[in-house]
Amino acid sequence: MVNESSKSPDVHRPVTQVLFPTDLSSSSQLAFPEAERFAKALGARLIVLYVAPPPDYWSTGGEPVELDPETVAALRAVRPVSSDVPVEHVTHIGLAGEVICWVAQELDCDLIVMSTHGHSGLKHLLFGSVAEYVIRHARCPVTTVRQHAADEKRLPEPQVYQRMPPII
């Protein structure tokens, strides 16, 4: 939230709503425990958002689009382990990045926790990155969870060319 007088984040505002966007893939589900952890620690509601891709208008004949039963069941299965975390499921149809930012704004979310698939190079150029779009356009803080972060080895100690003496 931005304080209109100073255009800086309102650090005194409590976090009451955490948005967890998911495409129901296994990699997006890796971020769910983090979203739940934030919501529980902050006493916040957890909003699970699924954005279905927009259909080809001509293939639907202009009729309303419904989610298939498997998608609905998978979405309902995204539930916190802790009963202390209130959860709400929301679905929309559209372009994922735009919808995530819009829903976060409309529902007055204080934090977005989402996965990043970690694509780079040509794949990133061809398909873009929903996480990157959200980071650039969301009006609230965004925490991303990398897909393979848990599998990676510990970072090596950096080379030290010269240690600086303590300043204080």
CATH architecture of the domain at 27-56 and 66-149: 3-Layer(aba) Sandwich
Taking Cα atoms only, what radius of gyration do you get, to the nearest Å? Answer: 19 Å
- Total count of helical runs of at least 4 residues: 7
Helicity range of the residues? Answer: 25-40%
Number of strands: 7
Sheet bearing the most strands, described? 5 strands, parallel
**Overall pLDDT score:** 82
Tell me what portion of residues adopts beta-strand conformation: 15-25%
Using the alpha-carbon principal axes, give the shape. globular
Order of helices and strands: EEEHHEHHEHEHHE
CATH topology of the domain at 27-56 and 66-149: Rossmann fold
Strand line-up across the major sheet = 5-4-3-6-7
Structural class: alpha/beta
Low-confidence stretches: 1-7
**Terminal residue distance:** 35 Å
CATH-level-4 superfamily name of the domain at 27-56 and 66-149:
HUPs
Q: Would you summarize the structure shown here?
A:
With 168 residues, this protein is of the alpha/beta class. It has helices at residues 26-29, 32-42, 57-60, 69-76, 96-106, 121-127, 130-137, and strands at 2-3, 8-9, 17-22, 45-52, 87-93, 111-116, 142-146. The protein has a domain at 27-56 and 66-149: Rossmann fold (3-Layer(aba) Sandwich), CATH 3.40.50.620.
